[in-house]
């Protein structure tokens, strides 16, 4: 389904352009050359003598250009201003070269649409760049070693912060404050779990936050306690907020700096668009500020957070944000983000039937009535809705809320493109409903990376029947549903390669398990790249301007170190980003010395 988007778009654009141009034969020829010439008249350059080719500001030559949508591979791309001017052979595109044209030699590497990460938390991502990353720690000792090194490298830091640890790293699935005290005892240490739903703290942090055996669990939260009732150093869900008082909020300038860092990181990875899954209007204002300063080097689509109880007054506040900033090709909102449930690893995802290894089902964050009310209210105002839903019950509540909204509201002018985020364990009955209701499945393939944590905690919590529909992206797509892909940075790193690898192979980066984890969900390479570009662009209502490489589309292009279509599928992940072109300009080059581009 995703594969047809650019063609449908192309035909529509062509028809509109034809009606405008048919009165002028010269303009028609020029249009034909610019629009379809490079694709259809490939190799017939001799026949197009006449109108002088338009000068390009930048050309990419000697590449393996995959335009998206299953289109054939081209060699070269011409860019004028911030748009794609033409695609074709290197010889064709050289005709657009002028004295001031920047030339990028792709040296046989793949040339793709810049990656569009459909689910990130960009400011937290920036913050994560200043924290110890525990994602690769496979044992308690490895986690402790990483924390020890990080702490001793910054003895002046008032607190030691980290993130990314996995439940499966710790005996019993949870760490303890004593394990953290062994490496940091003089200052508070706080280590966020990779999924953001649990925090591991040391004894100093519990003391400073005033958490004692007498402290009650907050609503929707849990202070994990030992047999004697002593807090063990693990705080789940809303109980994480109990330590906020020892974590001062960064200042506005500090936040702007964190976002600048996050932008540089995205550019270095070929990520040219990101979609932020939940922020408050104050954070949105930071991106607006960077846009005004000409510093927003990544396109940002922002969903604003809508917690339980979200009211008409809250909606009015968000409408005001949208009125102040109706949207540009760099920054736009018009979406809200809701959190239906938690995660499977900590038994907080909402399930239709109890977990396999205890008798709980997880508790949804919203009542059905509250979710239906908020969704119908915002749908009626023309807003798009993202719902985080991981368990089969959470997913069903979200689908039901979208169905309800479609019944009570007239269809919005731009169509309904509501989304569900994550979709880790879907009921078989709900798979066809994505297509039927036009709901986008926004998934983060690297969450399905079948490491010990997935195989021995995630899958065991669900039992084999439900685990057989783990991250069922292909089933949803085969049933006619649309996909969008991303990373959930900083839950996992914003680097696209590992997630692309999981979508292709359903194996770890080391090739485990043999044959893959639920391997029937593997997708072919063009499909994965299309979802990461056109699928994600559709999910933010921007498929008219981005997601494929075609004349008139925004010039967000990435040049890779190798031809992805010329290597075994398990080696695709080994590519490096050589050059990132954003909005028509080179913003990153791996060999900054030669700039990867010449004039
Ligand atoms: Zn997220």
Structure description:
By secondary structure, the chain is an alpha/beta fold. Helix content is 32%, strand content 20%. The chain has an 8-stranded parallel sheet with strand order 7-14-15-16-17-18-19-20. It has a 6-stranded mixed sheet with strand order 8-9-10-11-13-12. Strands 4-3-1-5-24 form a 5-stranded mixed sheet. Strand 12 (221-225) and strand 13 (231-237) form a beta hairpin. It starts with a helix and ends with a strand. The model is unreliable at 1-48 and 594-599 (pLDDT under 50). Bound molecules: zinc ion.
Terminal Cα span: 40 Å
In which order are the strands of the major sheet placed? 7-14-15-16-17-18-19-20
Instruction: Work out the radius of gyration.
Output: 25 Å
Portion of residues in beta strands equals 15-25%
How many strands in all?
24
